[in-house]
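User: Can you predict the 3D structure of CCAAT-binding factor domain-containing protein? Sequence below.
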Amino acid sequence: MPSAVKEKGNGKAGKAARTIANEDKEAIAKVRELELEVTTSKSKLNNIVLLIDLAKASDDTCLLLSDRPHVAHAAVHALHRVFSALLENNQLRRPKAASSADKGDAITAWARDQYVTYFNHVCSLLRSEEPGLQVPALTILMDLLKKESKQLTSAAGSDHFANDQFQRILQTLLLNTNFSQHLVIELVDKYLNLYHDLQFYFFKDTSKIIRTTREMSSTNDGARKRKRDASDKELFTNSMLHHMTENVFAILEKLKNIPQAQTDIDTFWAFEKSSNFGSHKESSGFDSFDGEAEEEGEREEAAQETKGNKSKSAFPNLLTHKKALSICWLEFLKLPLTSDMYKKTLMIMHKRIIPHMPQPTLLMDFLTDSYNAGGVISLLALNGLFTLITEHSLDYPDFYKKLYRLFDRNLMHVIYRSRFFRLVDVFLSSTHLPAALVASFIKRMALLSLSAPPAAIVIIIPTIYNLLKRHPTCMLMINRTRQEGLVDEWDEEDMDPYKETALNSSLWELEGLQQHYHPSVATLAKIFSEHFNKPSYDLEDFLDHTYTTMFDSEIRRKSKKIPALAFEQPPFLFPVPPKEGEEVTDVQAQRWQAWTI
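Assistant: Sure. Here are the predicted structure tokens for CCAAT-binding factor domain-containing protein:
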């Protein structure tokens, strides 16, 4: 009985823990009452302060860690509705002068200060460890951004974008140590990939944030050189730079729907496409988020600048959009990238970065440095570098020498092997290449095939065959007759592919491949013993072979003949014929008897 009573008591306690306490219900009802008073009477604007206090609830940035999470949650959404109504009624506009004695302007300035406080608090929720809080906070912030931009547009008579608020949102996101995958997907899929104004200002603001953070880090590095002990501020800045690099790349690699033409810029978050399309302006919006008011001279200067730029289009324009993207990527590439980021960036360079840049040659230094780095980085830099050479007139005279040096034994085992040979097939496709150059590549691939795994050999053989078909002059390497005392002039240590030593050599390695232990390799290599009257191979059919695919192919192969089996069961394990007069015994059975207990 006592145990039953205990279980029943625990059940009641658990149920009580899952429900909102009565005092919280009263507080939530009070929140709704305060909200109603604010929205119905201007004399009750002081209720905003009470709602902000309830929204904060504690000093924690996570609502779940606050003293009364349900009350704080209700207050946050109530304030969202309150400030949305104030924005729609144009009650949060900037006063004409900072020293204005007008009572209405003073009230508006006070309400704006409360709005900034609330906006900062919701931004702090983006740093929560709970995605369930981050995503709703982002939704609130983006909705306020939209309403504020519309309020600025209504007040100015032309489309404006509240970029100071958007920059504050981005700064919180990019420097966030808890940038969850849910938050990334919400930001990219729901906003940046759908609305071109948000995409444009993301590129523009992210460039500024990266530049500022990097300058702070470099300043601290200089101070650290003068002082041995690193302060907490320096460590924080370096950590901040690391998190920012990861967060920026998490967004950039998922961005799609980049406009290719002016007509592609047709979806906007902050305003509607109208007859004055192309005359959108960036606005400094309200006060900066540090709560400090601008100086009167700065306000007048900004007003004069806005007045003088009425005819100047700040957004949207295809060229400015591409420039913003270009600057953003160039700033990102200056950051300390991890090896994984470096590789992924090079993999998307030729398709998702270069085509959208107005001056792709600005990537020349980055790509050439990557190409000279060696190893996997050089392989991945090939695509972008070759795009600059063929499509943007980049002069790189040592391209084929660098490519030749990439052929080593390690190449046959990297995961990017198929990608590399696909590019090599393109690089050597021109029939105007010198025969000595092509012969050097053929000879080097043939030599590497002797120590390569079967999956790599089945790529090399079709590649060599296609090159020989494309360059008949190199057929001498196969048809060369044996001569006594002939010395092979080709030196595998020589890294100059333009020498004719390979052309004077022979492809004896291909004959060795015809005796390979793997039947698929041996069969494929026999193509060089036949007349070259077959069409060139489609290299795509061989690039994705691995040990797994080759094993699956063998076990699925149907046998033409039934394999020969013994028709009588042998009486012993090893069929050694007995001597005359010797009795046949099971040797293994005798050995096991020694272990009998």
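The chain is about 60% helix and 0% strand. The longest strand covers residues 160-162.
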